[in-house]
Amino acid sequence: RDRLFGGLKRTSEKLGDNLTGLFGKAALDAQTLDEIEEALIVSDLGPAMAMRVRDRLAEGRFNKELTEEYLRGVIADEVEKVLTPVAKPLQFKAARPHVILVIGVNGSGKTTTIAKLAKRFQEQGRSVMLAAGDTFRAAAIGQLTIWAERLGVPIVAGKEGGDAAGLAFEAVKQATEKGIDILIVDTAGRLQNRTELMDELAKIRRVLGRLDPASPHDVVLVLDATTGQNALSQIEVFTQVAQVTGLVMTKLDGSARGGMLVAAAEKFGLPIHAIGVGEKIDDLRPFDPADMARAIAG
Ligand code: GDP
Predict the structure, then answer these.
(1) Where does it live in the cell (predicted)?
(2) Whole-model pTM above 0.80?
């Protein structure tokens, strides 16, 4: 929790900077409302949230004094309302293995997040297997293999340049034989070539679906929160190339752009399963909308 509040300090400070001078005036007027709306947009919270806060203030404080405390209270309140419906941990059904496809651009924190999820599931008493499906990057295969060894979980990995769908198929077969609860499949994150990426993800999906029509049971998109608006466009692209079922936001420690999470929730309504607050294996947190709202609003 401290990690979250510490991590989002820069986000709330940025919001505070953008709001400087907008409260404490004798009476809240239309121009100040415009400026507050603008400040919220500049703070990455998104136009819809900016409008909500504006409307609340116009209703409750117009022509009255607006204090910083009141303003931050309204922001926290509205943010929590938007975040609450999307806060959903991953849910497991009867399927064995439950297959989680993890997608996202290179550098977003995909590999690290897979390891963090694996650790969390292990702690819940579930058996986990990994599949190194990012066959385009030898480094990704290597990195995931190191995590698997550290965690003591089996991994199915092929050679660089190998067929990712074939690997995923093999992984499910092995996971089934071993009675594994959860199989986490890494994928390549090459957004540069959208058609190829789409084809590859579609092929993995087809192959998995042959073994179990409901598989993959989750398609989790990993997003780097420090990239702000860029992360929003990644959601747009990935929801077009894959049937994304939920999000994990990484690097919320020390990011000034944590507000994007609110804009993302409002614009796409996708479940947020967890957040990354550091590079270590235990730095994955469940997504708590009330804490998050307060950390952002400051
Ligand atoms: P991938 O290319 O998407 O697989 O990304 P990696 O998992 O290799 O992560 C890229 C970099 O981001 C690494 O240096 C990670 O340690 C770092 N990283 C991942 N998640 C987080 C996080 O939540 N917070 C911070 N500060 N760094 C992270």
Answers:
(1) Cell inner membrane; Cell membrane; Cytoplasm
(2) yes
